[in-house]
Design brief:
It contains 12 helices and 22 strands. It has helices at residues 18-23, 33-37, 40-55, 57-66, 80-91, 95-106, 127-130, 134-144, 277-280, 283-298, 309-313, 421-432; strands at residues 7-9, 28-30, 113-116, 120-124, 167-172, 182-184, 195-196, 199-200, 219-223, 228-230, 239-248, 261-263, 325-327, 336-338, 343-347, 353-357, 371-373, 376-378, 385-387, 403-404, 406-409, 412-415. The longest helix has 16 residues, at 40-55.
Length: 433
């Protein structure tokens, strides 16, 4: 599957073999699925219950009437980790009940399933509200994982030791719009990429991903082996999502084998303490235990697949090669090229270019590995667009990109990466007087 657009589902049960098609790489959007299942209000009420416990009844009522997309107006960013933890505390013990309603109807005939013990609770407030608190948000990520209260970069779930055969059920509880959405890189499905610490290595060339406009109750269904991530929230609205991961058949762990996926048939009742056992009855678990013992005895090596030494040290397969002068014949419209270690140039049209500093001010993404979209230069890590006229992004807390002068001569575009563009503008203005 390459470059596929998502397939819309309007009525539960209308797509046959849905689980198989997702496992084959197709991406679906289930419209108003939670309302059809009768699960939307329970998830809303559970969330409000957690907000009330962490932030008080007054805040909970404001969110109930004003909407989850405005939660940043009433919750201090420093309190967002506490609120998220409280919502986890409410929704985790209810996950099995919700999935026992959802899975048989959305995936009829798929059979017994395994599920990640805790759902993923994701509050992404506008970046300009969160920018001052990145250190605190990073500490929270060390406990709960990336992507819960801040954008996370392109990754495959198995790179952070999740099962490679998991289906993600990514549910909008508040509205989601392009600008604060999920990204799924369907054109890069199945392609090998170098990664480090669970995320794609900076400089890998990616294609423009899918992003989604979702109403509350809509859900995106996709395979965990898809490369996916988050847009940095450049809107003025909070994005609130709850996501589940399920597998049909035992979870397949290509690296570490320590996540808790419970067997749905055992997870309710007196056998619940044994619900994690079936996932461990496979060779990968015993190999993992042997690896643990070896590391403990020798003191060498790491348990996590996210620290895979081979993948972490290979570097990007096709790193952008700096060229101060680029032949126009090798520079298609809509692409970006590196011109030095610190600068890149984008071709906007047949005769228009823009040259900028090479690294994104948000998290250092290599813009030379990005793409053009509607005349804007887009960072490949979190899909942040930059205006080619000003170098500014929609996030006012971030500095604009530095611009450099360029000119076309002898069939090549030349960039003077050592000289600010404003110097040339001033010189041109003086020459015209």
């Amino acid at each position: 599957m390459t470059g596929q657009s998502p397939i819309e589902i309007r009525h539960i049960g209308e797509v046959r073999d849905l689980a198989k098609r997702i496992l084959d790489g197709e991406v679906f959007v289930l419209r108003q699925g939670l309302q059809q299942l009768g699960l939307f209000e329970p998830l809303v009420d559970g969330t409000l219950e957690g907000i009330k416990a962490a932030a008080g009844e007054d805040v909970s009522e404001k969110v109930r009437h004003g909407g989850f997309d405005r939660i940043h107006e009433w919750v201090n960013p420093l309190d967002l980790p506490k609120v998220t933890d409280a919502v986890y505390g409410v929704l985790t013990p209810r996950a099995l009940g919700h999935l026992r309603t959802l899975v048989p109807r959305v995936f009829p005939g798929a059979g017994t399933f395994y599920y990640e013990q805790a759902p993923n609770v994701r509050f992404h407030i506008p970046y300009d509200h969160a920018a001052r608190y990145r250190r605190e948000f990073d500490k929270f990520a060390e406990k709960r994982g990336q992507g819960k209260i801040a954008a996370h970069g392109p990754h495959r779930d198995q790179w952070v030791d999740c099962p490679s055969n998991a289906i993600n059920i990514w549910i909008a509880i508040g509205p989601v719009q392009q600008g604060n959405s999920l990204t799924v890189f369907t054109e890069d499905y199945g392609k090998p990429f170098a990664f480090k610490d669970g995320y794609i290595l900076n400089g890998e060339r990616l294609h423009k991903p899918l992003s989604f406009d979702l109403a509350p109750g809509d859900a995106v269904l996709f395979l965990s082996s898809h490369l996916h991530g988050s847009e940095v929230n450049r809107t003025d609205r909070t994005r609130y999502v709850v996501s589940y991961r399920v597998t049909f058949g035992k979870p397949h762990y290509p690296h570490g084998h320590y996540h808790h996926y419970l067997h749905s048939g055992l997870a309710n009742g007196p056998l619940r303490p044994l619900a994690h056992v079936p996932q461990n009855l496979q060779a990968s678990f015993f190999r993992y235990q042997v690896q643990r013992v070896r590391i403990k005895l020798t003191g060498r090596g790491k348990m996590s697949g996210a620290d895979d030494a081979t993948a972490a040290t290979t570097g990007p397969r096709n790193p952008p090669v700096p060229q101060a002068s680029i032949p126009l014949s090798d520079f298609p419209v809509g692409t970006v090229r590196a011109v030095s270690k610190t600068a890149c140039v984008a071709r906007i049209s047949s005769d228009q270019f823009a040259a900028f500093s090479r690294y994104c001010p948000h998290s250092g993404g290599d813009l030379a590995a990005g793409w053009m979209d509607n005349g804007k230069l887009v960072c490949p890590l979190h899909s942040l667009p930059f205006d080619c006229t000003t170098g500014a992004s929609p996030c006012t807390s971030l500095k604009p990109l530095r611009q450099f002068p360029w000119h076309v001569q002898d069939g090549k575009v030349h960039v003077e990466a050592g000289r600010p563009a404003e110097v040339e503008v001033a010189a041109l203005a003086s020459a015209g007087e």
